[in-house]
């Protein structure tokens, strides 16, 4: 099986910052808005290099979403930056009416998603944002897995016409996808070839899936790991093609199983090819304070949880 | 530019449009629409500088954003009678497959509309964003917006009001329709908002008051004054005192007609008080 190596752990939010820095140089229409979290979102470079295109809105996320929507009128491509919780739940109606229903070309860039935000606890650890965003007609939903992929996604969404939700996180995680790799919105990336089980993972859990696949391989289970960075539109063909071969699937995400990637996959399977599926996701719960590793373990979101889910789903084949 | 009589004639015709539109589908919001008729007629016919046709990006022209989207009848009538789409299309207001949705939207591609509105309190932020883009594009044209007074109860407005002053958004003229009414009663009964002028001024805005917002001449004078205040480092607020339901006696000075359509008899009375001027659609 193909082995991936960590080229040095980095935070996905820094991938966003690096992508934004590059966009600042390459695309004069890109503007950035931030609600008092410039450092956390790694938007400092863009701010320093293009002060005239950087808009500090203060702690006023609703206003930020409205301003972003308005800025598209006249050709700007606004990138909003704040935590995932404040990028979605706090401003759902502003996104719904002024951005999604109005069809505005706004890129909602959300850091600190999921429990891996860590010690700040449940008030900040949104586990519902994928569901909220994927329900909005016309919204593209992307959850990237490492630094390189987040940078590539940031560049790609500037070229995409229409509203996008780009979800990434706070902690340093292994960086294993190619530097300056291509990013095709809506196109799944098959990371390993396998025959016994398909593991479809998104965000931070892609690395956990790769770790799980190595352990499984050692025990004679051949896992096909697919990185689904785009949850909407979902790459149905990639999923159906893989389960045609493996006959069972595990979905893995740092999100509530209500409304997440797993449910989107289940819908595709139930309509096209009913297949045993196990869900690695939070079980209708809020998070809590702790280190990212502790939280991933406690809420059943790490490689060990994926291995367990694989063993369970194999029994159902 | 049309003269006062021509603008008044258009306003009367717009009133007829409003009444006939909401009557036909037995739904919609005539009260605020009638109250803002003179304002929107003056804005589109004499105040704003617009280009031919409709271009979403609105480069090199003034732009208008309606935040209180429920007064769509007056907005649609004025847009149609300003040439944005065929006047006959007013016949489709709120009907299935229409571009004239209950609340304005870009979703159906109706020319003249640049943002959806209806869920209140969002329009000023959008207008500020458009104003920021004008500045980035070095486009000296202005952004206009209209808001209900009850709408100011939505907190997002105050985020926007604070931002606009702090960031010297001086190419924006936001008008508040002070009719003192909202769905559940008078604004003073539902949630008293105190001295709105003092609040805007405290936030750092320049304020222009139009005492009779249902008088074309007063609206023109007030908006001309507001325009003269732009470009001076501060956003401009126009407090437009209107009478909800203006021009139809039984609809005036009450919140009862905020979101209620007239029946056949009431329509006849309303139309009799607003004689056809430019031709019904």
TrEMBL record, chain A:
<dbReference type="Pfam" id="PF02779">
    <property type="entry name" value="Transket_pyr"/>
</dbReference>
<dbReference type="InterPro" id="IPR029061">
    <property type="entry name" value="THDP-binding"/>
</dbReference>
<protein>
    <submittedName>
        <fullName>Transketolase</fullName>
    </submittedName>
</protein>
<dbReference type="Pfam" id="PF02780">
    <property type="entry name" value="Transketolase_C"/>
</dbReference>
<feature type="domain" description="Transketolase-like pyrimidine-binding">
    <location>
        <begin position="10"/>
        <end position="175"/>
    </location>
</feature>
<dbReference type="InterPro" id="IPR051157">
    <property type="entry name" value="PDH/Transketolase"/>
</dbReference>
<dbReference type="InterPro" id="IPR033248">
    <property type="entry name" value="Transketolase_C"/>
</dbReference>
<keyword id="KW-0786">Thiamine pyrophosphate</keyword>
<dbReference type="InterPro" id="IPR005475">
    <property type="entry name" value="Transketolase-like_Pyr-bd"/>
</dbReference>
<dbReference type="InterPro" id="IPR009014">
    <property type="entry name" value="Transketo_C/PFOR_II"/>
</dbReference>
<comment type="similarity">
    <text>Belongs to the transketolase family.</text>
</comment>
UniProtKB/TrEMBL annotation, chain B:
<feature type="domain" description="Transketolase N-terminal">
    <location>
        <begin position="13"/>
        <end position="268"/>
    </location>
</feature>
<protein>
    <submittedName>
        <fullName>Transketolase</fullName>
    </submittedName>
</protein>
<dbReference type="Pfam" id="PF00456">
    <property type="entry name" value="Transketolase_N"/>
</dbReference>
<keyword id="KW-0786">Thiamine pyrophosphate</keyword>
<comment type="similarity">
    <text>Belongs to the transketolase family.</text>
</comment>
<dbReference type="InterPro" id="IPR005474">
    <property type="entry name" value="Transketolase_N"/>
</dbReference>
<dbReference type="InterPro" id="IPR029061">
    <property type="entry name" value="THDP-binding"/>
</dbReference>
């Amino acid at each position: 099986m193909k082995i991936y190596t960590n080229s040095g752990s980095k935070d996905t939010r820094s991938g966003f910052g690096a992508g934004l820095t590059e966009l600042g140089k390459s695309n004069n229409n890109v503007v950035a808005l931030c609600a008092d979290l410039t450092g956390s979102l790694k938007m400092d470079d863009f701010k320093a290099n293009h002060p005239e295109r950087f808009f500090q809105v203060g702690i006023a996320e609703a206003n930020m979403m409205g301003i972003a929507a308005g800025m598209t009128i006249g050709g700007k491509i606004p990138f909003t930056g704040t935590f995932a919780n404040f990028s979605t739940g706090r401003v759902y109606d502003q996104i719904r009416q002024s951005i999604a229903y109005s069809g505005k070309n706004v890129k909602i860039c959300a850091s600190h998603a999921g429990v891996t935000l860590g010690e700040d606890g449940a008030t900040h650890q949104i586990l519902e944002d994928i569901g909220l965003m994927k329900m909005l007609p016309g919204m593209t939903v992307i959850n990237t897995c490492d630094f390189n992929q987040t940078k590539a996604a940031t560049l790609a969404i500037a070229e995409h016409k229409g509203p996008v939700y780009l979800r990434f996180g706070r902690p340093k995680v292994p960086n294993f996808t190619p530097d300056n790799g291509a990013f095709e919105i809506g196109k799944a990336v098959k990371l390993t070839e396998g025959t016994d089980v398909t593991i479809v993972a998104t965000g931070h859990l892609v690395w956990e899936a790769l770790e799980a696949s190595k352990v499984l391989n050692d025990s004679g289970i051949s896992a096909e790991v697919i990185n689904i960075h785009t949850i909407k539109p979902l790459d149905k063909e990639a999923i159906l093609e893989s389960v045609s071969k493996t006959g069972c699937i595990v979905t893995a995400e740092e999100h509530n199983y209500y409304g997440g990637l797993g449910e989107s996959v289940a819908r595709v399977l139930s309509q096209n090819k009913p297949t045993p599926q196990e869900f690695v996701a939070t079980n209708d719960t809020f998070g809590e304070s702790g280190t990212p590793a502790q939280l991933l373990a406690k809420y059943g979101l790490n490689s060990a949880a994926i291995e367990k889910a694989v063993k369970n789903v194999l029994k159902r084949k | 530019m049309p003269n006062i009589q021509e603008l008044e004639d258009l306003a009367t015709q717009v009133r007829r449009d409003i009444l006939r539109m909401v009557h036909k589908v037995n739904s919609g919001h005539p009260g605020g629409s009638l109250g803002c008729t003179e304002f929107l007629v003056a804005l589109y016919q004499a105040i704003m500088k617009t280009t031919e046709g409709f271009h979403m990006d609105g480069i090199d022209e003034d732009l208008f954003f309606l935040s209180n989207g429920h007064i769509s009848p007056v907005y649609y009538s004025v847009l149609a009678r300003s040439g944005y789409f065929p006047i006959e299309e007013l016949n489709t207001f709120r009907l299935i497959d229409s571009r004239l949705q209950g609340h304005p939207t870009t979703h159906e591609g109706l020319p003249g509309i640049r943002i959806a509105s209806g869920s209140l309190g969002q329009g000023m932020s959008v207008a500020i964003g458009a104003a920021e883009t004008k500045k980035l594009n070095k486009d000296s044209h202005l952004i206009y917006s209209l808001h209900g007074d009850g709408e100011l109860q939505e907190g997002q407005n105050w985020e926007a009001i604070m931002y606009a002053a702090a960031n010297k958004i001086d190419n924006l003229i936001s008008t508040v329709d002070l009719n003192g009414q909202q769905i559940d009663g008078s604004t003073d009964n539902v949630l008293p908002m105190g001295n709105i002028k003092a609040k805007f001024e405290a936030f750092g805005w320049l304020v222009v008051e139009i005492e009779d917002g249902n008088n074309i001449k007063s609206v023109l004078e007030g908006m001309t004054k507001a325009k003269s205040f732009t470009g001076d480092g501060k956003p401009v607020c126009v407090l437009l005192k209107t009478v909800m339901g203006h021009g139809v006696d039984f609809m005036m000075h009450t919140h009862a007609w905020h979101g209620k359509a007239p029946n056949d008899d009431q329509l006849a009375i309303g139309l009799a008080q607003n004689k056809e001027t430019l031709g019904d659609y």
